Structure prediction request, 247 residues.
Amino acid sequence: MSARAAGERTGRAVVTGAASGIGAAVARRLAADGMDVLGIDRRPCPGIDHRVADLGDLDRVTALPEELDDERPTDVFVSCAGMFEGQASADLDFATYERTLRVNLHAPVYLMGRLAARMAGRGYGRIVAITSIHVRMSEPTALAYDVGKGGLDAAVRTVAIENADRNVLVNAVAPGFVRTGMSIVNGEDELESAWFKDHYLATGRLPMRRAAEPDEVATAVSHLVSGENTYVTGASLTVDGGLSARF
Prediction:
């Protein structure tokens, strides 16, 4: 496939982390846009074709690009899988740190690079990695998460410039607070906590005074992977309700 009509949303889209949260919303949106969606997750992905794979298992990850393209060439790849385990830098545990980086950094970087090369050979591809506002903001106990998302953001730029002349566009979407299972901390939804409401909503530190819904992040992804996007690459689109714009 050498070209796409402006606005066209067809072809095979592979979405990691598609069983829940942002990944599930992206998978639903791209399917509604007309794409043939394949989800990848540790758990089944209801309503779409899927493959069960743990992205923390790097041996499994290295087999995926060839396995995916043997079925049908991948036109769109969206990396949504992620994990968070809070740990202060002074209490760094390498097992937790490495597990987080395997899922949040090593697996998506490998998949982006290998799938981008295959897309480049066909003259068309779109890739989006879900990063986070943590690429430029941080908080205590988020060391492993911050390192992973920051590294993924850097990798997006590298893969983008390596493949731009072959019509493979690679971008990041960086969400802020989103209503997903990752907002559940120690059994409590932090977005419903008194601390969140007092610290972010009442003060206006989060200017829109609410968290995003996963579908709002999926809308941004939908544009970046469509034929309407013909020139944006190596960029990061922030979807955080103005949080990172506030002094």
User: Anything to note?
Assistant: The longest helix spans residues 94-122. DSSP finds six helices and nine strands in the chain. The radius of gyration is 18 Å.
